[in-house]
Write a structure and sequence with these properties.
With 111 residues, the chain is an alpha+beta fold. A four-stranded antiparallel sheet has the order 4-5-6-7, with no helix packed on it. A hairpin with a 2-residue loop joins strand 1 and strand 2. It is elongated. The mean pLDDT is 79.
């Protein structure tokens, strides 16, 4: 009898959890609607002279020399920046040898 009561309690808890999840608007598949969303991804670049630049993604700026070499970045990452043409740059961020971000031929916008 006790075993049956325990099974009934477990079943009731499971059904309650399923019913709660079904009514939760944050549970399920999400789809991005670009018309209703504002995505802001802006990088401000400031020349510091001597091929050295400040890259600001909206927080604490990173400083790197635009020579294509890996240099220390924020949060234990490495950044490599190179100027391919006056208005085309390559910015690569790596962590533990893996590429996290690679923006190739991005237009340069100085402050």
């Amino acid at each position: 009898m006790l075993k049956r009561a325990c099974h009934l309690v477990v079943l009731t808890c499971l059904l309650g959890a399923v019913a709660w999840a079904a009514s939760d608007p944050l549970v399920g598949d999400w789809k991005l609607n670009p018309q209703k969303s504002k995505l802001t991804d802006v990088m401000k670049v400031e020349s510091l002279g001597g091929n050295k630049y400040s890259f600001d993604f909206g927080g604490n700026p990173e400083i790197a020399v635009a020579d294509g070499t890996d240099q220390p970045g924020h949060f234990g990452t490495m950044v490599a920046v190179s100027v391919d043409a006056p208005d085309q740059w390559t910015f690569v961020r790596k962590k533990d040898g893996r590429v996290l971000v690679a923006d190739y031929n991005e237009p340069h916008h100085s402050m």
